[in-house]
Design a protein that fits this description.
18 helices; single chain; mainly alpha
Length: 568
């Protein structure tokens, strides 16, 4: 499957520096920080203790704020895309998307170091090892600054030849300036990502999400003003640079506020620590490569063996399941530092409890949306794309197949995050690579031996679905029994049984909507889905949540300003 351009670089903890920057509508995320901090002789004192929230409340807060940032990103993209296309025109807008794609691939030079920093910061924090935190941040800045210089050099070479490599409507001078600003933005993101990793290692995803949401909204408003006053792509890339600098500058300030004992000096450079970091990150890099193959190759295969017209039909369905995947990843992405912290404290029972809860909520979140795709997916595509789109039926069928694939993938996602937090990411990397190669092989087999372009197109989706279903059925029991040392049957019963059992009433409601209240417009569709989710949410709250989960959820809502007279 392929992830839509709007979502590239937003992949929780496995995406490298691109994940550490605000993702505005249809734009590349890149950024800057200051890295000169004052040295101190105080080494061994831990960060000052602060009042802490309950673990469940912290995780819920992180997840909810991640969802807010994700919703802001999707909604601004939904409205900004046609605005930018209409005012910049297709060719100039295409240049902007192209620059974003190039930046996304350069982001792979992260080599998986960012998630490694998140994990180790969480561990060292749990052990109150301030000296190790200082060594990690100092070494990380050294490595990432070097990578940033490499990215800037590559960006310079691309900028020199950009109009020769690609046919663009920009003058050579404008193209050079645009690419260099974007390249500088990405280059500065690399050292800044150390502080983003530290913030996430301290499990303050809520701060990252809040500043991301504010940045996107303010930036989008200013983009509209500038574009309406006649400014073009130079204003777009310049404004993006300014907002990314401000966002990462705030994150650096906040990390220093959380832990004022952070010191960055040459004396803190520990090459043994760096070798350990690279050893850990190399398997993250393999996971990133596996994800690239799993989620970005189908469109290339279709374009190579079929036609670009069929790529469009595939991408329409794929974009919807990509949104579902990203929604879940915004929740499961907060698990790794939480698990690392618990593991450092040898709290195995809490790790197991967190694993069960995360799997349960993954299914409670993804299964109803999967039901919408199955029952009303073709209706949505028809309303979304309009009557001129003549491949609604094909995209609807592809959506059903890809929904099976993504649900199979998401079932194992929390377990993979827990294993990663426990330092057992090697097995996740191996299975990820094997699954990716199987996906590619099956897609090529189906596309070669099936007859007719439409059958071969469905075959590509079937290859993706088959590989994900097979490897989930094969890998999940191994993950659970061999690596987590948990009996399989109790895990399945506690994490999956209840989410599955409460789906039939919601499925029946969707069938009623299809046959008795068929949505005549896109807005009516959204309205009916929102209304249908209200009784589902009541079922989840009353039946799907345990007492502690309900209490933590209500307490968090109360702190947000929503008061309840009684907590059930």
């Amino acid at each position: 499957m392929a992830i839509s351009p709007e979502l590239q670089g937003a992949q929780a903890e496995t995406a490298g520096p691109m994940a550490s920057t605000s993702v505005a509508p249809d734009q590349v995320s890149i950024a800057t920080p200051e890295t000169q901090l004052v040295a101190s002789s105080v080494e061994s004192s831990p960060a000052p203790s602060r009042p802490t929230e309950s673990r469940v409340a912290r995780i819920i807060k992180n997840v909810l704020m991640n969802w807010v940032a994700y919703a802001v990103t999707i909604l601004t993209s939904f409205f900004m895309s046609p605005f930018l296309v209409g005012n910049l025109h297709d060719s100039v807008y295409g240049v902007w998307v192209l620059i974003g794609s190039l930046a996304g691939y350069l982001g792979l030079l992260d080599f998986g170091l960012t998630p490694a920093i998140v994990k180790h910061i969480a561990e060292y924090r749990a052990k109150n090892d301030q000296a190790a935190i200082n060594r990690l941040i100092s070494g990380g800045l050294t490595i990432f600054s070097s990578l940033g210089l490499l990215v800037f050099a590559v960006s310079f070479l691309i900028a020199l030849r950009f109009n020769h490599l690609f046919h663009t409507p920009l003058t050579d001078r404008t193209a050079f300036i645009v690419v260099m600003i974007a390249g500088l933005n990405l280059a500065l993101t690399f050292p800044a990502s150390v502080f983003v990793g530290a913030l996430r290692g301290y499990q303050r995803y809520d701060i990252d999400a809040a500043i991301t949401s504010c940045t996107i909204l303010l930036q989008s408003a200013l983009i509209v003003v500038l574009i309406l006053h006649g400014y073009g792509i130079l204003a777009l890339v310049g404004l993006k640079f300014i907002f990314d600098m401000g966002r990462l500058g705030f994150i650096i300030y906040y990390v220093r506020r959380i832990n004022p004992d952070i010191r960055i000096t040459r004396g803190h450079l520990d090459w043994q620590e760096m070798r350990r970091l690279f050893s850990y990150s190399s398997f993250f890099f393999l996971i990133m490569v596996g994800n690239q193959i799993n989620f970005l190759t189908d469109s290339i295969v279709i374009a190579a063996f079929l036609s670009t017209a069929l790529v469009t039909a595939y991408s329409i369905a794929n974009r919807l399941v990509s949104y579902l995947r990203e929604l879940v990843i915004e929740m499961t992405g907060v698990l790794m530092p939480a698990v690392s912290s618990l593991d450092a404290g040898e709290d195995k029972s809490k790790v197991q409890e967190l694993h069960i809860l995360s799997t349960k909520y993954t299914l409670l979140l993804s299964l109803p949306l999967a039901a919408v795709f199955f029952i009303l997916g073709d209706v949505f595509i028809e309303r979304w794309m309009g009557s001129r789109y003549d491949m609604t039926a094909m995209s609807g069928l592809l959506l059903k197949v890809l929904t099976v694939a993504i649900i199979a993938h998401l079932v194992a996602t929390p377990t993979g995050s827990v294993l990663t937090g426990l330092g057992k990411h090697q097995v996740v990397a191996r299975f990820s690579i094997m699954q990716a190669l199987t996906n590619l092989l099956l897609s090529l087999i189906f596309i070669k031996f099936l007859k007719g372009p439409e059958s071969r197109l469905i075959g590509v989706a079937l290859g993706t679905a088959a590989s994900m279903v097979i490897f989930t059925l094969f890998a999940l029991p191994i993950y659970i029994r061999q690596y987590l040392k948990v009996p399989l049957a109790p895990y399945l019963r506690q994490s999956m049984l209840l989410p599955v059992l409460i789906q039939p009433p919601y499925i029946a409601l969707l069938l009623l909507l299809r046959h008795l209240a068929f949505p005549s417009s896109l807005w009516m569709f959204f309205g009916e889905i929102v209304l249908s989710l209200i009784p589902y949410g009541i079922m989840v709250f009353g039946v799907g949540m345990g007492q502690r989960e309900r209490t933590a959820f209500l307490r968090l809502l109360s702190k947000s300003g929503l008061k309840f007279s009684k907590q059930s």
